[in-house]
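Service request form, structural biology core

Requester: graduate student, group of Dr. S.
Request type: structure prediction, single chain
Budget code: on file
Notes: please return the result as structure tokens.

Sequence provided:
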Amino acid sequence: MTFEEILAWPIPVLITDVNRKVLYFNQNWLELYGATADEVINQQPSMMQSGFTARTIYQELNTSLKNSGAWSGVLINRHLTEKRFLVVALTIMRWVVEDQTVFVSLHQPLDRLCVDSAVSIGSLQTMEGIFLLSIAKIAEWNDPELENHVLRVSKFARWISEMMRDNGDIPDADVDLIEAASVVHDIGKAAVPKEILFKPGLLTDSERYHVKDHASIGSEMINTIYHQMQSFHNLYGKLFEYAMDSALTHHEWWNGNGYPNGLKESQIPIVGRVVALADVIDALLSDRPYKKKWPPSQVLTYIKNYSGLQFDPKIVDVVITNWDHRPIFVD
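Core staff response, request fulfilled:
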């Protein structure tokens, strides 16, 4: 991958050398921070610091980059020309590009704040919702289809949750939580090399390990970012708990043969059980690099055959009963 290809990604991108001096940036990044090329070239990213991000977050950032070469979190940065702040979901990765070791950082704005209201971030639900939708896009650069997939999964998850609520199996409040949490179930795929995600043939054991690791990585990303957000938001949202469970457990199987932890039956959180089925429904009904989409009748047969094996049989029952009323998406 070249610098030109990275800078063409549809998200604000900043590239620095190993000493954190700015080397490259794309137009989206300049527009986000209101900067000009001459102002930022060869400067340090610290020029964007607002003073409202906890010092411990920067310490964790530096330690993580030193030890693992990657970090994800949320910072309150400042706009370089206007009197306001930017709440930004940031992912930094150490890569070798064109034989040069660099840090590539992706910046996703979560909200915009004027200086006078910097301490009052806004409503909890608004910030959580913006956070989850925005952080899901961080994985998008690796898979342009991912955004469409997670949005479809969220609709399937809501459909399933509404049926379970109507049967008295989950409380009404969980419907919104599961729908929102499902959008980040695949965020860990940001750590999976693109050549593996798009490989049309069978994966090697090593490649399969990388893919499976996305569940644990995704949950860790959300957990880390949430705890860093606590520097300016002290209330713990149940939505974050559901989001972490969604990322971590959507590949667990009802019979215990899934990953990453081999959970079984009620050990799997309800959001994981719902998203597991919603994810498979969309995957089977969609074209993928390694397969063509299945007809709905074949998908329904698969679901029936794996009831009590891969999927919660109670959830399968409501899906089978209401299959003709599932969400339909036009290509």
